[in-house]
Write a structure and sequence with these properties.
Blueprint (H helix, E strand, L loop, with lengths): L5 E5 L5 E5 L5 E5 L3 H6 L4 H20 L14
Antiparallel strand pairs: 1-2, 2-3
């Protein structure tokens, strides 16, 4: 992926998106349920920012070859 500025935006439908600053197309979209928003007491945007920040950091590490590809299935929690 070419280097560009990324931005986190709240879409009109309430979803949170990560996109290139010069592009309207979302790279990643997070959609919190009403229950999750209630549980987070209105802080879902802060949680989304943290989730996307870690994801971008991990993607950078993957691009640099810092992770080994595993052939077997993994359990995701």
């Amino acid at each position: 992926m070419p280097t560009s500025f990324l931005e986190i935006v709240e879409l009109p439908d309430g979803r949170i998106a990560l996109r290139r600053a010069e592009d309207e197309e979302a790279l990643v979209v997070l959609d919190f349920s009403a229950d999750a928003k209630a549980f987070l007491q209105g802080q879902h945007i802060e949680v989304a920012k943290a989730m996307l920040n870690v994801g971008v950091q991990m993607a950078g590490r993957l691009a640099e070859g810092d992770f080994q590809h595993e052939e077997e299935a993994r359990v995701l929690h």
